[in-house]
C-alpha cells in the first residue's frame, strides 16, 4: 500500500464522498464535459433529498444531450464573444470586478496550504472550478496531508460560502443553461449542505 493509499484509507467515507462531489463539480465547471463524463453523469442516481433530486435531474439531462451541444452551452455560459453569460469568479461576485481583494486573499491562503496554480491554467484562481478543486484536494491530501476539518471550514468560509450559492443560483437560471441548470441545482444544494455541516461542527 502506497502512502497515498494509506492516506485515502484514513479519510472517512463521508469526506471521500464530499471530495468526489467537489471534484465532479470542478471537472464540469472547468471545461466542457467529454462523452465519457456525460456518460458518468447519466449514470448517477440520487435519493429524495434536494441534492439527490438535483442529481437525478442532471442524470436525465445528461442522457438526452451530447458532447457537442454541451460544448456550445459551456462556451455561451463561460466564454462567449468577449465574455460569457456568467463570470464565475469570487472577486466579481463579491466586488463587481475581476482580480480584486478576494483573489489576493485567496492567493495568500493558497500559499499557506502549499497550493499552486497549475502551469497550464491561466484563469484567476478564484474561479469556482478551481475553488472546488482546492476543497477536494484539501480533503484528499493532494497538497500534503489531508487538511483538518477546521481548516477546511476556514477556507470554505472565506472563499466559497460568501458567494458560491449566488453563482450556482445564477447558473441554474441562466438563459443558456440546459445541462448546466441542474449542475447549478446540484452545486447550490451541496454548498448549503456544506454550510450547515460546518456550522453544526463549529
Description:
Helix 3 (35-42) packs across helix 4, helix 4 (50-63) packs antiparallel against helix 11 and helix 10 runs antiparallel to helix 11 (180-201). The chain has helices at 3-10, 13-30, 35-42, 50-63, 67-78, 90-95, 101-112, 128-140, 149-159, 164-173, 180-201. The protein is mainly alpha-helical and 202 residues long. It contains eleven helices and no strands. Helix content is 66%, strand content 0%.
Report Rg. 17 Å
| Overall helicity | 55-70%
For the termini, the CA-CA separation is 34 Å
Total beta strand runs: 0
Series of secondary-structure elements, N-terminal to C-terminal: HHHHHHHHHHH
Instruction: State the secondary-structure class.
Output: mainly alpha
Shape annotation: globular
Low-pLDDT residue intervals, each spanning 5 or more residues: none
Count of helical segments?
11
What share of residues are in beta strands? under 5%
**Whole-number mean pLDDT:** 93
Largest sheet geometry? none
